[in-house]
Amino acid sequence: MLFCFYPPGVLRFTEIGTNLLVLICVAASQAVSSGYAGMGGLGAGGFSIDSAYSPFQGTELQQVRDLDIQYSQMRAPGVYGGVSFSLTLFVLTLFLLVAGAKSLYQISLKFLIAEFVMDVLACVIYIVAVGLYLHFVNQVNSTDVCKKRELVYARQGYTWMSCNVQGSDAAVALFGLISSCLYGAGAVLCALTIKKARVLQRGRNRHRPQSQPSFKWINSHHHDAEADRPVATLV
């Protein structure tokens, strides 16, 4: 018997990888931009304000600490949202990969249709999510807190701590758009798979025998030795 296994397995692995990269880049973006005050309760930042050497002293030290905390708190919704979104799609895609590892003769058409809908939604939502994430980052970077923070760091030579879109934020957008393209390709492959699965399953059902042979045991009413043995007759 010919077994045709569900094809986009490699594509699913790639989607899982890009979702993981989005998650890592979101966390890295917060870590890079957290400054000396850490990440506002989200973990340790790229610097330590209590280290042996710090370029900030006195009131300037307190100022940069306050600005870092305010900036990290302003970015926190984007971080939590990005991590939750990418982690959710990571888990869903992993589930689809495991549940879809079946022969086209065995896989449910309802499952394939649900997978197609999920791919289409993930493709569209990822594009919207990337746009919202960049809009959110630009809004935070345009605040007075970010601009004051940029000036304080620039006085000590840290010009990279600016209010421009960071490389890690750009990486989030890049991998998000790649994920969107992958889910779009997955939707196309899933639609082709649904068509092929229907043809194969209809062909299998068409060639399946309508009735199975059954056996009926008939006991003879004669009392001789040969009649005592049951006779199997094909009905």
Taking pLDDT < 50 over at least 5 consecutive residues as the criterion, the unreliable ranges are 1-7, 39-52, 211-235
Q: Note the beta-strand portion.
A: under 5%
Q: What's the helix-strand series?
A: HHHHHEE
Numbering strands along the chain, what is their spatial order in the largest sheet?
1-2
- Approximate shape: rod-shaped
- As a percent range, the share of helical residues equals 55-70%
Characterize the quaternary organization of these chains: single chain
What is the C-alpha radius of gyration, as a whole number of Å? 31 Å
Q: So how many helices?
A: 5
Structural class based on helices, strands and sheet pairing: mainly alpha
Mean of all residue-level pLDDT scores: 78
Compute the separation of the termini in Å: 29 Å
Number of separate strands: 2
* Main beta-sheet strand count, sense and barrel state: 2 strands, antiparallel
Tell me what you see in this structure:
The protein is mainly alpha-helical and 235 residues long. Helix content is 65%, strand content 3%. The protein contains five helices and two strands; from the N terminus they run αααααββ. It is rod-shaped and about 85 Å long. The N terminus and C terminus are likely disordered.
Primary descriptors:
235 residues; 2 strands; mainly alpha; transmembrane; 5 helices; two-stranded antiparallel sheet; 65% helix; disordered N terminus
Can you summarize this structure?
The chain has helices at 9-33, 58-99, 109-141, 144-155, 167-207; strands at residues 215-218, 231-234. By secondary structure, it is mainly alpha-helical.
